[in-house]
Hints:
The complex is a heterodimer of chains A (192) and B (157).
Chain A: H1 6-14, H2 20-40, H3 43-59, H4 70-89, H5 99-104, H6 114-119, H7 122-131, H8 135-146, H9 151-158, H10 162-184, H11 187-191
Helix pairs in contact in A: 1-2, 2-3, 2-4, 2-8, 3-4, 4-9, 7-10, 8-10, 9-10
Chain B: H1 4-13, H2 18-30, H3 32-49, H4 60-68, H5 77-80, H6 83-106, H7 130-156
Helix pairs in contact in B: 1-3, 2-3
Amino acid sequence: xxxxxxxxxxxxxxxxxxxxxxxxxxxxxxxxxxxxxxxxxxxxxxxxxxxxxxxxxxxxxxxxxxxxxxxxxxxxxxxxxxxxxxxxxxxxxxxxxxxxxxxxxxxxxxxxxxxxxxxxxxxxxxxxxxxxxxxxxxxxxxxxxxxxxxxxxxxxxxxxxxxxxxxxxxxxxxxxxxxxxxxxxxxxxxxx
Amino acid sequence: xxxxxxxxxxxxxxxxxxxxxxxxxxxxxxxxxxxxxxxxxxxxxxxxxxxxxxxxxxxxxxxxxxxxxxxxxxxxxxxxxxxxxxxxxxxxxxxxxxxxxxxxxxxxxxxxxxxxxxxxxxxxxxxxxxxxxxxxxxxxxxxxxxxxxxxxxxxxx
Lengths: 192, 157
């Protein structure tokens, strides 16, 4: 069976077939949830944020003008909702540039035995490193690598110029590399 | 001046023009410092590209649809504003403007210009008879039925 486009599903929803929205949710839920998780740092809050995003998108579906991809529009809602969540919860964030915070960071794998470290998947370290980035850095990296959005589209989501996105992405990747190096110390040489 | 890392990232992301790309490729081939950074960046890039998305709970979609079903059905903006209403209002205002303009011109005395004058007094009673009343009520009932039909359809949706 040929898969309907996002636009066809939106038209169906606007024509009164609200069940078609479930298909849109299924298509985009993983990325929206992943983005929310980068901000909230725990699954329960991430689910709440992601559900809120989809309900907001449903309410505003009539205003979607089709001048961008539905995913870009949805990720914009996700980003603003997650940022609002952060402001409300006032989650303490830290920067790798902050020397004091950097020194206070506990290496979560320091107590592991060498054998345990070897057994760990490289993705665990990578996810750990991403989770320790600033939410904005984590979001920009997630958008670039996992959302199939161009730099222009990422700029639209984050409400910034594509050149700014490029610079921020560059810095975020450097921070990620530093985080990985910090987490893995010598093991990073094997990983990278 | 771009740093080595910046040049390498742009090279990996495919954002360099032909000549720039060739220049960076040459530096990677000839310069050990460039080559080392390139290997590190490429590994990280490839690793990032293989990271999988997180999966929400099994009830995620159902929870959203439960909430969505309590919401008012969304409507495209273009259907909210019926163009016929806009055209009707435009016609009414245009008729009013033309009427007022005509009345003003007709009752203004121009020394060298004579325009036809109209008698605006009319006997309303001659239009009020059983037939016109029946037509009036028929149209009212028709409009009421149309309104009820529309109301029922929107509630059903």
